[in-house]
Amino acid sequence: MASSSSSLLVTIFLCISFFSFLSVNANEVTVGGKSGVWKIPPSSSYSFNDWAQQARFKVGDFIVFSYEAGKDSVLQVTREAYEKCNTTSPKASYTDGNTKVKLEQPGPVYFISGTEGHCQKGQKLRLVVVTPRSSAFSPAPSPSDGPAVAPSSGAAKLTGVFSVVGLVLGLWAFF
Predict the structure, then answer these.
(1) Neighbours of 28 (CB within 10 A)
(2) Scanning 20, 29, 88, 118, which has its CA 20 to 30 A from the CA of 6?
(3) What is the pLDDT of residue 6?
(4) Cα separation, 60 vs 64, whole angstroms
(5) In this structure, how many other beta carbons lie within 10 angstroms of the beta carbon of residue 61?
(6) What's the gap between Cα 54 and its chain centre?
(7) How far apart are CA 130 and CA 117, in angstroms?
(8) At 81, is the pLDDT very low, low, confident or very high (cuts 50, 70, 90)?
(9) What is the pTM for the complete model shown?
(10) What mean pLDDT, rounded, does the chain reach?
């Protein structure tokens, strides 16, 4: 009896470990890369779109906007609103100063500043979201001036693989 209850506890633990493994594949990417600030670009030669083209955004990733709450905002908009810097009917509006948006579907996604005149001065972002590969391992981002990606632990992914093996062995021992 003690053996089967300890096997059950091990199985439950391994199931929890496995499901936590499934959630570690998403990245958090900070807009602007290392500078990490959502603001009017410092010069006309800088573009948030140039920065975004150096990154690979996958469905399930999070994009993080960091800005001064009360003085700026982020609007998720349509392509037309993006091109015209139209702030009147956004798909979503964020004002908290540390906005985290989950990228939920593949295709282009458009963001502009909600502050009057900022979009016209280049504070806008177009990025393309791709469907993630079926592999649990994805290539590391480019080390140059690419996006600032929250570190994801290879050890966590490896632990997840061991969790699957442990789950199978635990279930086998239980039955």
Answers:
(1) 16
(2) 20
(3) 59
(4) 13
(5) 23
(6) 15
(7) 31
(8) very high
(9) 0.64
(10) 77
Which is more confidently placed, 161 or 80?
Answer: 80
99 Cβ neighbours under 8 A, 6+ residues apart: 64, 65, 67, 74
pLDDT at 32 over 90: no
| 55 in Cβ contact with 140 (< 8 Å) | no
What are 71's two structure tokens?
């003085």
Helix or strand or coil: residue 103? coil
Within 13 Å and on the Cβ side, how many CA atoms surround 61?
28
pLDDT digits (tens, 9 = 90+) for 149-158: 444 444 444 4
CA distances from 136 to 31, 32, 104, 154 (A): 25, 27, 18, 10
SS3 85: coil
- The full DSSP string for 106-163 is SEEEEEEE-STTTGGGT-EEEEEEEPPPSSS--PPPPSSS--EE----HHHHHHHHHH
Residue that is written with structure tokens 């458009």 in the block:
110
